[in-house]
Amino acid sequence: MTVSVADQKENINVAFRAMMAELADNSVALTFFDPNGEEFKGIHQTTWKELLEQNWTEEYELEGKTVYRLTGAGWLEGLWRVGAYKDGVLESRMAQLAASLKCRVKGRKRDVVVLLHKLAEDTSLPVGWVFNAIESGLLRKLWNTRDASWENPGILVRIPLNFGMKLLDHTAEIRAELEQIREQLDIAKDRLREVTCSFCGAPIVGQGSMPLSEDVDGYYVAYACGRYDTDGYGEEACPLDPRFPKLEEYDLELIENPRESALKWTCFPRAKTANGRLLHLHSELGHTSEEACQRLIDQYHRRAKP
Ligand SMILES: [Zn+2]
Asked: Do 191 and 224 belong to one domain?
């Protein structure tokens, strides 16, 4: 079965709606979803996989069956997907929880640790919901403030002394870091330019010394694009080099060899311009003059392709 991307995305929404309905105000740690259950009938196998890969759920073997449960991040995603951010209930519960947490550290000199159950009782909020709020870092994620966290998961909650304080904006630091990385990238690019063709980026495929005369050695660099640099004689241009010759810069000279039985014709490229000498085409043979000529044109086009 192939599922379109749109179907796949919608199926994830359907899965979240079903899981959040099933979860209600219970704790994500204690609520397991059976993919074969009636309420999850329309959920694709690939959707369960995707939820797992996004770390929105965890997979367990329970009494021989594969089951899933939401993570804290999955619960936050679920709230978002079912539109809970838009209704006032979530906001008022968050305010209630925050007020209670704030009250406990007020006037203290140190962090305060409380029982989860006590916290739920005092706020009159469902204990499962409070669990999920602590597990997911709800207040921190939504309000960008210092939040309570587990001292002991599911049992004890640590409330930091600076609870409710706005978290610092780290964007400036990140921006500076990004700037530094950009500079390093520019340096790396410059270095790469030294070892690749400056016109097309093709890598070097060979380099070394070559004799220019009996006593003088030159140096050559060959690139994958066909470019060939020397400090002496015999340069070839990259196809993207503006100096790369056009076909019109060659005279195609045809010579017939009557003594040859089959390939009677040879086509010689004769460069008419200085740029014409930046590409070394070799002669081509043919049964007819047209064939030899065409082969040479084909050779040119092969070489001219970047
Ligand atoms: Zn090149």
From this structure: yes
Query: Tell me: the pLDDT tens digits for 186-198?
Result: 888 887 777 889 8
Q: Is residue 108 part of a domain?
A: yes
8-state DSSP, 129: H
- Centroid of ligand 1 to alpha carbon of 240 (angstroms): 6
Q: How far is the CA of 223 from the centre of ligand 1 (A)?
A: 7
Q: Is residue 153 one of the residues assigned to a domain?
A: yes
Q: How far is ligand 1, taken at its centre, from the CA of residue 197, in Å?
A: 5
Expressed as residue numbers, the domain containing 130 is 87-159
Q: What is the pLDDT of residues 123-163, one digit of tens each?
A: 999 999 999 999 999 999 888 899 999 999 999 999 999 99
Q: 242 lies in a domain?
A: no
How many independent structural domains does the chain possess? 4
Residue 268 CA to ligand 1 center (angstroms) comes to 25
DSSP secondary structure letters along 219-283: EEEEETTS-EEESSS--B--TTSTTPPPGGGEEEEEEE-TT-SS--EEEEEEE-SSGGGGS-PPP
Model pLDDT, residue 231? 79
* pLDDT tens-place string over residues 62-80: 999 999 999 999 999 999 9
